[in-house]
Design goal:
By secondary structure, this protein is of the alpha/beta class. The chain has 11 helices and 8 strands. The N and C termini lie close together (about 5 Å).
Length: about 270
């Protein structure tokens, strides 16, 4: 049974915990600059490719498709479950298409209008709908809060997921109960643990990468280490990267190529970590 990231975070003062889970406090540039870059790169890629908007019950997906895809990459955006949208999550769509893969950015309902459970349900339904559209291997990816959602999708529907591509996520939600993030989420520790993918078993048939920026706080590094352990792998610290440019500067074609070339359902006889 996983103990998440342990109990070291409980020794931090309220101010230290708030600082540790404030990505912009550790970033090289202001969040507003990164936010602009995400929007500009997404608009550029959306303008250069054909994007279809598909309504999935209460939310939507933005799809960029190629003929005979090698894989489907589906992206869950970040924003601490409270902000963000699919329009600004089309960054790297062109690069993914150039790698011969479909790219989908998923919109999901946000707090306070929705619970994290509802977000997980919506993201899972989106992945299922995409699997129905294409039999190509499914790479479920996400950043920050989106990485938590991607990991929860994989835990609930492991047969759908070929690989996970997780950037700077929060996989043990208990520490954020004691930060300002929780003013909107309104979680207690019991519910936060229930929503923590790091506590769940994953079959060794799921490949992937768990990445984080070298310049992020120790808490984010511990989050990555704990999640990677659950997935039978080592976390990847990206040199010089912070919470935001770890995604903006990522080599998506290279990551996809590595996943498809090296992940062939390893260790099939190994039990899931429980």
């Amino acid at each position: 049974m996983s103990n998440g990231i342990g109990d070291g975070w409980r020794e931090l003062s309220a101010e230290e915990l708030e600082y540790a889970y404030s990505p912009s406090a550790w970033s090289k540039r202001p969040w507003a600059v990164y936010q602009r870059d995400f929007a500009l790169e997404s608009a550029r890629d959306s303008a250069s490719i054909g994007v279809a908007c598909v309504r999935q019950n209460t939310h939507r997906m933005l799809l960029a498709r190629t003929d005979k895809p090698r894989a489907n990459l589906v992206w869950m955006h970040g924003g601490y479950w409270q902000e963000g949208n699919a329009n600004d999550a089309m960054h790297h769509a062109q690069a993914v298409l150039d790698a011969g893969c479909n790219y989908t950015a998923v919109d999901y309902s946000l707090a306070p209008g929705a619970t994290i459970e509802q977000m997980i349900t919506e993201c899972t339904a989106s992945v299922q709908a995409l699997a129905n559209l294409s039999p190509a291997p499914m790479i479920v990816a996400g950043h920050s809060a989106g990485a938590q959602l991607a990991a929860m999708v994989a835990a609930s529907r492991p047969s759908l997921v070929h690989s996970l591509l997780l950037f700077s996520g929060i996989y043990d939600l208990r520490p954020i109960v004691h930060t300002s993030v929780n003013e909107v989420l309104q979680l207690d520790e019991e519910k936060a643990w229930e929503l923590s993918p790091v506590r769940l078993p994953y079959p060794p048939t799921i490949g992937g990468y768990v990445l984080y920026g070298e310049q992020e706080s120790q808490q984010f590094a511990l989050q990555a280490q704990a999640m990677a352990h659950r997935l039978w792998m080592e976390p990847q610290s990206v040199p010089g990267a912070d919470h935001f440019d770890v995604v903006l500067d990522a080599d998506f074609p290279g990551l996809i190529e590595s996943l498809l070339a090296t992940h062939d359902r390893p260790n099939p006889g190994k039990p899931a970590r429980g």
